[in-house]
Amino acid sequence: MSLVFAGICSHAPGITGRAGMADPALREPFYAAYHRLRDQLRAARPEALIVVAAEHFANFFMNNMPSFAIGMADRYSGPIEDPAWLAIPRTNIPGAAALSRELIREIMQTVDVAFAEEWKFDHGIMVPLSFLTPAYDLPIVPVNINCQGPPLTPLHRAWAFGEALRRAADLVPQRIALIGTGGISHWPATPDSGKINEAWDRQLLDRWVRNDKAALLSYSDLDTYREAGQGGFEIRTFISVAAAARGRGHLHHYAPIPIFAVGCTIASMDVAA
Amino acid sequence: MSLYQLQKFLYEINRDPRAQQDYRADLPRLLEHYELTHEERSALAAGDIGLLYVLGANGQLLMHYAAFLGMSWPAYIQAMRDGVARHGPVRAGVYAMTTQMGEKVAGV
Question: What is the pLDDT of residues A49-90, one digit of tens each?
Fold first, then answer.
């Protein structure tokens, strides 16, 4: 049918796992924005949800690291992390193998992707799903862009991948929703955890909302590392969503929450022709 | 090469319930399957998050491993700081510490 919804959101494990350590005055408006995104997603009546994530070595490692990978199974599981640590119970999540196969076939026309018939979700997908599809009743097509193990996918390839995703979504009969999840500036999993460059984040989000391709692709990994930390490499997921949706973005929520280790972001984007 | 092996160990422990069983049953024997330096092997045998951080283990791998070990968030963050205080700056990778030793940006 077509792409019927596009959005982006944060996925840091502290969002669920350290909920009790956060200031409620910061936490609750963010959670409310996440819940509104859930309602908006549901209102679009998707039959499947593509989640473009930046996974953290749940499935892919430096022995064989794909730039892009897409799940092709009828069932996934997660989280790999200690469920008590993440505060998300371990569960099965429905997939859509036949749909994945169709999408992958089309995407491969322009972008080389790996496919995976098994895939364990980590916080990068489980945190968003715990808010957006808490009953795990919508088939998921997991997608990964390597944002962890350098050399990393160039930004212009993340854009090309988003274009390919869109072309594929428009070719299949199902109504497809798309969510990109990642952090903007952050220094996760270090003693710096909680450091956030708000000015850098707001500039990135402004470029994303305007869907300014040239500006979005102008970052170098060296500059991103210096100004936005190694977590900033995850902007690839947001960039691919902008390329797929082609429209104007709407920033619903942005606020640094240090104990969550990220500028907590919720946004959607009009799906343009 | 050995940092790669160290990280591969963490990758497999973090995602594979069978590896986790082996870890709990006989960690020294499990470690024999990896080509590690003495320092790396000792750090893994002791669950020394601070030294593993300084050795350059990818932060995401290390964070999930600390969760597997049952460490609280403040204890895990402090263990990395203590590692840097004891062993010096992070030696490899992209997860270097850029804040000051007493600078607790998130209050922990």
Answer: 999 999 999 999 999 999 999 999 999 999 999 999 999 999
Interface test with B, best of A85, A90, A144 (most B CBs within 10 A): A85
User: Chain A partners of B61 at a C-beta cutoff of 8 Å?
Assistant: 56-57
**Other beta carbons within 10 Å of B63:** 31
Q: What is the pTM of this model?
A: 0.98
pLDDT tens-digit map of A103-158 = 999 999 999 999 999 999 999 999 999 999 999 999 999 999 999 989 999 999 99
Which among A17, A80, A85 is the nearest to B15, CB-wise? Answer: A80
> Shortest CB distance from A61 goes to which of B8, B97, B99?
B8
Nearest Cα residue to A86 out of B16, B106, B67: B67
List the beta strands (DSSP E) in chain A: 2-9, 48-53, 68-71, 75-78, 91-94, 114-116, 140-145, 175-181, 246-257, 262-271
ipTM rounded to 2 decimals: 0.96
